[in-house]
Amino acid sequence: MTFSKLTDGVFVVIGGTFPRCNSIVIIADEVVVIDPGCPVEDLRGFLMTHDLNLRDIDTVILSHIHPDHIVHTMRLNRLSNCRIAANEITAPLFDEKEEMKRFLGFEKGNPVRKLWEQLVNEKMYGAFDEGRVDEVLSNGDKFSLGDITLKTLYTPGHLPDHMCIEILEPNLVFASDIDLTEFGPYYGHPNSSIRDFKNSIRKLQHGKYSGFISGHLKEPLVVDYKDRLTAYSRQIGMREDLVLSSILEGAKTIPEITANPIIYPSLTHPVFLQFETWMIEHHVASLIASGLIEEDKGKLSPI
Ligand SMILES: [Zn+2]
Predict the structure, then answer these.
(1) How many Å lie between the centroid of ligand 1 and the Cα of residue 64?
(2) Which end of the chain lies in a sparser environment, N or C, as judged by fewer CB atoms within 10 Å?
(3) How far is the CA of 151 from the centre of ligand 1 (A)?
């Protein structure tokens, strides 16, 4: 179990890369866990170092609906009866898991829905547990926890419900899946948006935070986050160039482009081919919008 102390009362229990995530734990007037995607045993081990237990958790806050970020919410709720807080887009998805599946593109009829459900149940067991959000948040809402105040900051793109959480007094921001990993920005669902993702990155770059906390880096606190965000954002353009060159070399359809995967080069799992396809679809739409390619009767060609 590893954890980092960021400041008095603010900690990160490291979950690291997908299918886990880093969990923020705040110990102030309340015990708050943001994104319970680290192993529960590690969370328990960390709390014990502060003479606390899983039963002492008062609140769980969710940054967005992805299974790796919500996975242990209901388990913690069953143990501690903690309240669950999420924003107004996430909340109805959490309350109705069929809505969550549809939101993520895996509506009934999606050919890899069963495989995706299997993947979630194998790697993120608990993410489909039924439950209810107790407190629905809006953009800019504040949580006062004594010496520490949290504030929501909507940052869509990764998904439309994605939000960051500012930790005001120590002046940090938990950026969740604007995660600064080497993989780069993830927008692999039909309702993800490259344009919104770039705007959200810019929004964070305009913030004057003393530190930025990644949802997936094993060393989660990033101080030079403005430069790192620029490099992170640049990967979107590099992928777009690869999609364009694939079309220049003769690929005319999305399956022809994904035959040589760009996002997941060592792709073997059909669910990841679905994610690759959705990401490439966003790039194709963006290339059409910028006038670099056109689509005629389902065939793509350079202009
Ligand atoms: Zn996510």
Answers:
(1) 7
(2) C
(3) 19
Helices of type H across the chain? 40-48, 67-70, 73-80, 90-95, 97-103, 113-123, 194-206, 225-248, 254-258, 270-289
Strand 83-87 vs strand 135-137: parallel, antiparallel, or unpaired? Answer: parallel
CATH class of residue range 236-302: mainly alpha
Ligand 1: distance of its center to the CA of 165 in Å? 14
**Rounded distance from Cα 180 to ligand 1 centre (Å):** 13
CA 250 to ligand 1 center in whole angstroms: 33
Q: How far is the CA of 69 from the centre of ligand 1 (A)?
A: 7
Angle between helices 194-206 and 270-289 (to 10 degrees): 80
CATH code assigned to 3-223: 3.60.15.10
- 38-74: pLDDT as tens digits: 999 999 999 999 999 999 999 999 999 999 999 999 9
